[in-house]
Amino acid sequence: MGIITFNNQSSEDIFVVEHPPEYEMAERNYNIVPIPGRNGDLTMDMGSYKNVNRSYPIAIGAINGNYVAMANAVSDWLHSASGYARLEDSYEPDYYKMAMYSEEKSIDNILQQAGRATITFNRMPQRFLKTGDLKTIIAGPQTLTNPTKYTALPIITVKGNGDGVLHVGDYTVTLTNIIGSIDLNCEIGDAYNGMTNLNMYVTVANRKFPKLVPGGNLISFTGSITSVEIVPKWWTI
Predict the structure, then answer these.
(1) Which single residue of 92, 148, 149, 233 has CA 20 to 30 Å from 217?
(2) Cα→Cα distances 25→54, 99, 147, Å
């Protein structure tokens, strides 16, 4: 029997997962445009993937013979997060997903003593590798290898005092007035230290924050930068 962890809360003491979920694969986002007089549609790759649903069949026993208390416990667990939260399960132990629960659902009532349902999470298309949340500290030129076929958007902490230039593969970031450290969130394209916005001190070539492409990515820096910490955020579909 499997275990689900959603929003850092385990299902282990609430219900039993009856059998493994299907392996869902995300659909690529294409803009399909029919052209009059032309055979075949024009397709434009949007460079992204659509959300997918991940479903689990579950069985629940009444709490001290109380069916309603059991149903409430399941509902509280499912609605513990507002929006996306981390979803893990024992079937894919090396990965986690970002998911939300938003559907309407009924739980079968089996003689007021048990229940059965299928719960479905709407999740982002990525399967994030747990190893991608581990921090790599770089003190000099070093190649960081992306083990997947998908380009990752890391969180980079640049440490030092003064001005410097960071190179990540083909990407270049120029930083000024570093005082201790600057965080670069490459997914949202933002620079900060704690709650302080530091975008004014960061210039990225071609307005593109660094990405970690599949394979090797050479990391190097010059100037007053003393080290770099990278949380790579590896993912796959």
Answers:
(1) 92
(2) 10, 15, 19
